[in-house]
TrEMBL record:
Family in the record: Belongs to the DapA family.
Keywords: Lyase, Schiff base
Organism of this sequence: Murinocardiopsis flavida
Taxonomic path: Bacteria, Bacillati, Actinomycetota, Actinomycetes, Streptosporangiales
Protein name in the entry: 4-hydroxy-tetrahydrodipicolinate synthase
GO MF, one example: 4-hydroxy-tetrahydrodipicolinate synthase activity
Positions annotated to bind pyruvate: 74, 232
One Pfam entry name: DHDPS
Keyword Magnesium: no
Active site: 162, 190
Region described as Disordered: spans on this chain: 1-31
Length: 336
């Protein structure tokens, strides 16, 4: 694992378009860098928008993404049908064409359903899998261990545990994560808990080889400084270049540059509050803002979100544009 004072530096940065040094499953097993959890572009009729998704993949790879994560929370995984999940993975795997590994979210409520998603994702071309603990009902650590072992057995690919207690209502404790890593059940962790102390606890106990990522958009620099191997930022859809700059600064130990980039990105992240809370929830606001940002940047054609999410109105979309302008990001119609 990395020392607490520096990010992991054992892997060479990904070069967009470069040939893979080996099977992408192996690359996904030793991953570092920026791994954007892709939005899922939808047509106005709410079908997967394959051309827009292909443009999003190209946008991310050009920016220097180390891998691509499909069907995560930012990808509206809880709203997608199985057919939509499969189509999204198919499009991304084909568009990535082996340039970077593709991680597939296999999030669902119970072990049999997650195991079925795991097998389908492996057949669909995923290089690695990302799974939460079971949710809807409270889960004991013993049940969580059984869950991850069954998922790994269903599809023997690198498996990342996804700690997002705000959605699952279950926190993956450091001891459980480390036990699963030591026995070879999981290969990595995406920590979206927002708990830096818990992240540090995993890093202090982690066996060699466990890849630990922060899912925070706003304290990514701190996560890297205490030893995280990379970042999985939803805002990276809109500004992947910024997160790659942050990560690269951390890799070379330039914490002043990393903090400066983080401050800019933290201000940009306020676009997730563009939606009026009197008429929509925070998830509708955040996903709608990410998609509107991508639309304004010319990457996708429509900012359509899944039902029953509420769409941003004209005033709210204008707020997103203002945040992009303040962050120095050109939008369609700008001269830059």
């Amino acid at each position: 694992m990395s020392t607490p004072s520096t990010p992991n530096t054992s892997d060479s940065p990904s070069t967009p378009g470069a040939p893979a040094p080996g099977p992408n499953t192996a690359r996904a097993d030793a991953l570092s860098g920026v791994v954007p959890p892709l939005c899922t572009p939808l047509t106005p009729e709410r079908a997967v928008d394959a051309p827009a998704l292909e443009r999003l993949v190209a946008f991310q790879i050009e920016a220097g993404a180390a891998a691509l994560f499909v069907a995560g929370s930012t990808g509206e995984v809880a709203y997608l049908t199985d057919e939509q999940r499969g189509r999204t993975l198919e499009v991304v795997a084909a568009a990535a064409a082996g340039q970077v590994p593709v991680l597939a979210g296999i999030v669902d409520t119970a072990t049999p359903r997650v195991a079925a998603h795991a097998a389908a994702a492996k057949a669909g071309g995923a290089d690695a899998l990302v799974a939460t603990a079971p949710f809807y009902v409270p889960t004991h650590p013993a049940e969580i261990r059984t869950h991850f072992r069954a998922v790994r057995a269903a599809a023997d690919l690198p498996l990342y545990a996804y700690d997002i207690p705000s959605f699952t209502h279950t926190k993956l404790d450091a001891e459980t994560v480390v036990e699963l890593a030591e026995e070879g059940t999981i290969d990595g962790l995406k920590d979206s808990s927002g708990d830096l102390d818990a992240l540090r606890a995993v890093l202090e106990l982690a066996p060699p080889g466990l890849r630990v990522f922060t899912g925070s958009e706003v304290v990514a620099d701190l996560g890297l400084r205490i030893g995280a191997h990379g970042i999985v930022p939803g805002l990276g859809n809109v500004d992947p270049h910024g997160y790659v700059r942050l990560y690269d600064a951390a890799r070379r130990g330039d914490w002043t540059a990393a903090e400066r980039e983080q401050v800019r990105l933290r201000a940009l992240f306020r676009l997730v509050k563009a939606g009026n809370p009197a008429r929509m929830g925070p998830y509708s606001s955040a996903i709608g803002a990410f998609k509107e940002g991508l639309r304004l940047r010319g990457v996708i054609g429509a900012a359509t979100t899944s039902l029953p999410m509420v769409a941003l109105d004209d005033a709210e979309r204008a707020v997103v544009r203002e945040h992009l302008a303040a962050a120095g990001l050109p939008t369609e119609g700008d001269d830059a």
